[in-house]
Amino acid sequence: MDPLIEAFNNWMGTWAGRFENKTFADGICHSIGAFGNVGVVETDEGLVLFDVASKSFGQFGFKAVREFSDKPIKYIIYSHGHTDHCLGFAPYIEEIKEKGWEMPEVIAHENCLKRFEKYKMLYNHQHWTYFQQTAALGIKLNLETWQDILTPTIIFRGNENYEFKLGNCTFELYHDKGETDGSLWMFFPEKKVLFGGDLMVSSYPNIGSPFRVQRYPKDWAIAMEKMMEKNAEYMVPGHGQLIEGKDEVREALSITAEALYFVHDEVVKRLNEGKWFEQIYYEVLEIYPEKFKNHKYLKPIYGDIRFAIHCTYRLYHGWYNTGNPTDLFPAKSEDIAKEFLKVNSEENYFDHAKHLYEEGKLQLALHIIDVVIKGTDPNNREILLDALRFKRIILKQMVKEEESFVTRGFIDSSAYQMKDQIRKLRRKKK
């Protein structure tokens, strides 16, 4: 099996994204692994659903719920506004209409609604970014649209908390920033169960991968500390297996908080020292503690310390990142490459890129071969073809050495898409 697909499977449970469904807490709580997990609490008066998965997994989640209960859905809580957590509602609504039940209360933060509107506006862009990440896996994404939304009936404003009762059960809802600015988490005190949404994803927090927008590392760490105060015995994460046992829940929360504080504080410290991004980035990576690198809840499967450094930096800094006025309004990269090739030949650049590759200096090899690719006359197809083929070799080697699934996805998909460039050049040559 391709190692990229294997890593994807390990993180999501199976290719279909299904972790093991579990019943716990004296049989009234359930964790349904529908890629984006669905948490369920069964009360005497009906069911509370914490997330409903994606549209493509909605039917799977619905069938899993109906295997253990025929009670009506009374509450649906959106942990946040990402597709894999809030668009799988259709089967539940169809059932409600068929049986003449009352519609459930739907709870979300006000920023969740703003996110829905943003996704409607940027649908094509979202689809393009997901393609960039997954093309090499052969996934043909039909990104779920945002035209049909199960509209929230109870809306959080600001940082308020919310509590409701159903049957003999109490449910506490809290808002904290983390992966989004509209995140909610829930505590069920009678059974000491936390429902974390994507504030807990069972690996390094998803704190700003290359195509995703701003996340909030310090606020995220604070959320972990608030959850720890509940002394929960179970935690349903947004992705991953149910976390069981008071000590295990505390360990997952505490190490995540510590890691988030680390990256936030170290970046802020260096900003205050007047350092630019490149220096901050490499210094923080150099001092990244071993205990984080090897911890089971901090594996760089989706999130990554490198993403987190970028995320923290851009939270507090503008787009001018180097301090070098050459980079303030740079010339086109193609024009720069053409000038380099006036100083030295394509062949010399190519030879040097190969030398760097043989030494294992893959990133430097990419920079050098890009001079050839960007600066060579488009009519010089032989050199361009050789350079593109060699760049694919470098990228494929990087995929083998890269631990982060997301980073591997971007690199491998870029290599995959370069095939089209090579085919077009070969056709022109004929």
Walk me through this protein's architecture.
The radius of gyration is 24 Å and the shape is elongated. Helix 7 packs antiparallel against helix 8 (246-272), helix 8 (246-272) packs across helix 11 and helix 9 runs antiparallel to helix 11 (305-316). The protein is of the alpha/beta class. Residues 1-5 and 11-17 have low confidence and may be disordered. The strands form two sheets. A seven-stranded mixed beta sheet has the order 1-2-3-4-5-6-7. The chain contains 16 helices and 13 strands.
Structurally, the number of domains stands at: 2
Helix-strand string:
HEEEEHEHHEHHEEEEEHEEHHHHHHHHH
As laid out across the biggest beta sheet, the strand order is: 1-2-3-4-5-6-7
CATH T-level topology of the largest domain: Metallo-beta-lactamase, Chain A
CATH class call of the largest domain: Alpha Beta
Return Rg in Å: 24 Å
SSE class: alpha/beta
From the N-terminal CA to the C-terminal CA, the straight-line distance is 36 Å
Q: Got a strand count? A: 13
